[in-house]
Specification:
Number of helices: 5
CATH superfamily: Glycogen Phosphorylase B
Strand content: 15-25%
Number of domains: 1
Structural class: alpha/beta
Strand order of the largest sheet: 3-2-1-4-5
Shape: globular
Number of strands: 5
């Protein structure tokens, strides 16, 4: 199975570490992992590549999306033809969702929000409802 992960970045963080451990722990299952970082290589790109994971970096400016970056994301998704697309953190969720168009891949997202931030909880619930409605 080919699994494509879209993540905001690969710096030292919780989601990044979980992504690395997921890919590293899946070496013997025969699945192929591809990771797209919306920013740079961070600290995990080399580690992921040592686990035979293909890593792409869109090098988007912090807090901004560029037409070139979206176009490259779309081309990578189209070219790699993944069976599953897993997005990590809400920036990647929204951008990947926009780039998927009419993809035949299964799509899922992962993010954790603080229960204390009502505004972010509202956005998360809206995104989950949107994703469920469109599946």
């Amino acid at each position: 199975m080919k699994i494509l992960h879209v993540i905001t970045g690969l710096n030292d963080g919780g989601a990044e570490g979980v992504l690395y451990r997921l890919c590293a722990g899946d070496l013997l299952n025969g699945d192929k992992h591809i990771v797209i970082s919306m920013t740079d290589r961070g600290i995990y790109a080399d580690r992921l590549e040592q686990c035979h994971v293909i890593v792409y970096c869109l090098n988007l400016p912090k807090g901004r999306v560029t037409t070139r970056g979206l176009s490259r994301l779309y081309r990578i998704i189209r070219h790699s033809k993944p069976d599953i697309i897993q997005t990590w953190m809400y920036h990647a969720n929204l951008i990947a969702d926009h780039s998927l168009g009419h993809s035949k891949s299964q799509y899922g997202s992962r993010q954790k929000q603080s229960d204390n931030d009502a505004g972010l909880q509202h956005k998360r619930k809206a995104f989950i409802l949107f994703a469920e409605k469109n599946n």
